[in-house]
Amino acid sequence: MKIKGIAKGDKDLRHFTFDDENIVYKGGQPYYEVNYGKNPLEGEYGDEEIGYVLCEKVIPLGGKKPKPIPSKTKEEITPDVPETPVKEVKTRGRKPKVSKVETTPETVRSATSETFEYSVEQYNTGDLKEFQDKLNKRGLAGWDVCGFNPYKSLFGDTHIVVIFKRKRG
Predict the structure, then answer these.
(1) Second CATH level (architecture) for the domain 115-167
(2) How far apart are CA 35 and CA 46, in angstroms?
(3) 3-state secondary structure of 102
């Protein structure tokens, strides 16, 4: 008999239909073959989505209850049933953060093989041409801009703090 149902723990609350006579045993546990129907985004030519849900996790909807599941021993389970992967229930949220990162000596050596020297300077931006010339002179000396922070003082002058870096040695 066709019954509508929903799986316990399904965060998407997807409804499906299943036949209580169509039970598949996988790893000694009974599963219902369920039909989630067609995806409305695929249109009329989409395929029906078929999955397998553990019988004990099925909640029947609409008052109809499935008949009791016959228990089978391992000898009674037919080996000719193809093993298909069980559809995993989607979980919400982020994956847990990795608390410890393993580093190898090679990664540590490559990270410390280059050392830099830094210079922090403050410029007044009243004359942009003069400011541009100062930055170009620092660039010709081998310095790269790696950060800056503009701010306006209380009396209206606009300043920029610029951080430069270059390879040491």
Answers:
(1) 2-Layer Sandwich (3.30)
(2) 13
(3) coil
Residues recorded for the chain? 169
Average pLDDT, the chain: 77
Say what the pLDDT of residue 4 is: 87
What is the DSSP pairing of strand 158-167 with strand 116-124? antiparallel
- The CA distance from 154 to 121, in Å, is 20
CB 164, CB 118: distance < 8 Å: yes
All residues at 6 or more sequence positions from 121 whose CB lies less than 8 Å from its CB, including other chains: 161, 162, 164
State phi, psi for 123 to the nearest 5 degrees.
Answer: -125, 145
**Residue linked to tokens 């541009």:** 132
Instruction: Name the 3-class secondary structure at 104.
Output: coil
Residue 157 tokens read as 């002058």
**Start and end residues for every CATH 3.30.70 domain found in the chain:** 115-167
CA distance 123 to 156: 14
CB 150 within 8 A of CB 160: yes
The amino acid present at 70, given as its one-letter code, is: P
The single-letter DSSP state of residue 77 is S
pTM here?
0.39
Phi then psi for 43, rounded to 5 degrees? Answer: 80, -165
